[in-house]
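hiii so um. not sure if this is the right channel but i have a protein structure encoded as tokens and i wanna go backwards to a sequence. like what aa goes where. can anyone help
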């Protein structure tokens, strides 16, 4: 009887293992990039929907005010009145979805005139409270549509870059904001952009 021949039991080489690991890394990287893009797009959509809801809630609050806004209206008043979605409220603070610092408000309220209110989303002019370029551009384009300007009584839309306010992109609420104009206005690659929307809540 002849002895059984030994089978060749050669394993993987280091080069083969390196190639497999590289391919696996590329696949995981691609999945992570796609997931991150989807997550970012969802946050942009959430912000736009929330901002429109905030403005509609504010209009409901002032619907019986006959054109006059109380000059003392503050962020605390807006929170108490239930103007903001619950997911944005953190005690006495209001935090927009892109803010990494939740210990300060990244949304502010001002009263430019007796008949208008202004909300700033991404307030604080810092990377921890501001909006990324894509979110700034998307919010300006969404709010600056002719339909939303008319429906919400928008009189001004500003992109504030690094704390410096830009010019009104709507020309007093009469011109729709194009994606190109919004992208040019949100010009800071760092997360220090914010969007200020002025509107007539009693209109």
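sure thing!! here u go:
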């Amino acid at each position: 009887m002849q002895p059984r021949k030994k089978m060749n039991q050669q394993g993987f080489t280091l080069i083969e293992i390196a190639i497999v690991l590289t391919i696996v890394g590329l696949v995981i990287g691609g999945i992570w990039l796609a997931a991150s893009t989807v997550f970012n797009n969802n946050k942009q959509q959430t912000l736009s929907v929330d901002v429109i809801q905030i403005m509609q809630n504010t209009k409901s609050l002032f619907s019986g005010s006959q054109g006059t806004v109380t000059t003392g209206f503050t962020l605390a008043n807006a929170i108490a009145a239930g103007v903001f979605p619950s997911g944005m409220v953190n005690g006495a603070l209001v935090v927009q979805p892109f803010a990494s610092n939740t210990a300060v408000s990244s949304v502010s309220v001002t009263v430019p005139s007796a008949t208008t209110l202004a909300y700033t989303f991404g307030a604080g002019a810092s990377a921890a409270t501001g909006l990324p370029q894509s979110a700034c551009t998307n919010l300006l384009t969404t709010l600056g549509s002719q339909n939303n300007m008319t429906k919400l009584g928008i009189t001004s839309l500003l992109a504030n870059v690094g704390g410096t306010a830009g010019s009104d992109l709507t020309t007093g609420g009469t011109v729709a904001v194009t994606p190109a104009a919004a992208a040019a206005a949100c010009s800071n690659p760092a997360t220090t952009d914010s969007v200020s929307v002025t509107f007539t809540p009693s209109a």
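oh and The chain has one domain: 44-199.
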